[in-house]
What does this fold into?
Amino acid sequence: MFTKLLKKLLLALQIFFVSLYIIFEELIWDRFAEPIYKFIKSLALFEKLETLLNKTNKYIVLIIFILSFVIGEIIGVVSPLIALKGYVVLGVIFYGLKLVVVAFAFWLFNTQKEKLLRFWIIRVSYKRIIQFTQYIKNSYVFKLIKERAIIIKSYLKKIYKQFKHKVVDFFNKSN
It folds into this structure.
């Protein structure tokens, strides 16, 4: 009986964490962070910065990476607290700032990966994150939730289109 309860609890936890991962990937990364990252990557200033960083000592690169990552995560913790205090717009602005800072850290990691992976802790952490991500994406729960999310997403798009047409028709009739 205890084993059955433990299995159900673990399944519920797995569903919760996989759902969080999908939400993060679909909403946060695909919709906001990736476009910011691509924009940062395309700026001429960052091409010059990349050239400069290629010539820079690996410890300086590590410090810049850690600082940008930590600052981004601190902003990410502070932004919902600001929103909960009633300053929702300011909280959203702070979260947007977090995405910019973390996108910079991601850009820095991708451009300086060779230097950063020379550090044992970064190399091991990176390897573990990749393994964990693959574990999640290969799990039955992930595939099931992803399928359902696609169905729900298409349903919501259909409802949105219907609503949009009704609003457009309403305004066209009143003119």
The chain has two domains: 14-136, 139-175. The longest helix spans residues 2-42. The chain has a mean pLDDT of 86. Residues 6 and 12 are 10 Å apart (CA to CA).
